[in-house]
Amino acid sequence: MKRDLSFEEISDGKRYKASDCVKTDTHGCAGCHECCETTEDTIFLDPFDIYMLSKATGKTFTEMLESEITLKVTEGLIVPTLNKKKKGPCVFLSPDFKCEIHEYRPGFCRLFPLGRIWNEDGSFDYFIQVHECPCEDKGAIPVKEWLSVDEIDKYEGFVRAWHTLTHDIKELSLQANDAALKASNMKMLQAFFIEPYDTEKDFYSQFYSRGF
Ligand code: SF4
Ligand code: SF4
After folding, report:
1. For the chain, how many structural domains are there in total?
2. N or C end of the chain, less CB within 10 A?
3. Has residue 55 been placed in a domain?
4. Residue minimizing CA distance to atom 8 of ligand 1
């Protein structure tokens, strides 16, 4: 049986904060598009991603379900993922291999080849996935610059809040409480995805106003 690799095996063994420098700068990727080709339906999207994708496409979550995104179940949680073209790369990779929504790309794409490792107190650190990106000449860059999101403190606060909320729903699946799991998933989908975001307004105030 294949064993899970340890943190030390997939990383350089270090944990980083947003202000730390990491060697992930791929200098614009110089013609490489490997990670956009090999996503394998694993780009899970959160409400901030949906807000950004709505900005990029002018579509609501429900409209994007027709072509750009799909709902998947992972650990009992129903979440949207980015679609691939038929037997091909990400739906947003252009014929000349550029990200058509670069400014609005999902958090997963912003992070790569970084990952997040969660601590027991609900905080998280960043780490480098040392085996993931083939660029051999990566430069050093602060994590927050690599992520390239406005208001990094607000963004990280949202990431923690979303992690807590989704963690609580996943816990219901461990308790085999199917009725409660289904009800929580439906409530979460309606509140944070189906209800359209006003892309002319700030995301965070809309997210926190949607009580759960
Ligand atoms: S695999 Fe690395 S170099 Fe290639 S597109 Fe992705 S991030 Fe850029
Ligand atoms: S959204 Fe853009 S960066 Fe992310 S996988 Fe698709 S093409 Fe690549």
Report:
1. 1
2. N
3. yes
4. 29
Q: Find the 200 Cα to ligand 1 centroid distance in Å.
A: 31
Q: Which of 153, 106, 132, 101 is nearest to 26 (CA)?
A: 132
Please name the residue whose Cα sits nearest to atom 1 of ligand 2: 105
Can you give the pLDDT at residue 2? 65
Continuous H helices in 70-151: 107-111, 143-147
7-41: pLDDT as tens digits:
899 999 999 999 999 999 999 998 899 999 887 77
> Of 80, 74, 82, 71, nearest to 110 (Cα)?
82
Query: Considering the domain boundaries, does residue 152 fall inside one?
Result: yes
* Ligand 1 neighbour 133 (Cβ under 6 A): yes
Distance 115 CA to ligand 1 centre (A): 14
Of the residues 55, 68, 105, 147, which should be mutated to test ligand 2's pocket, given the most ligand atoms within 8 Å of the CB?
105
The structure's pTM equals 0.94
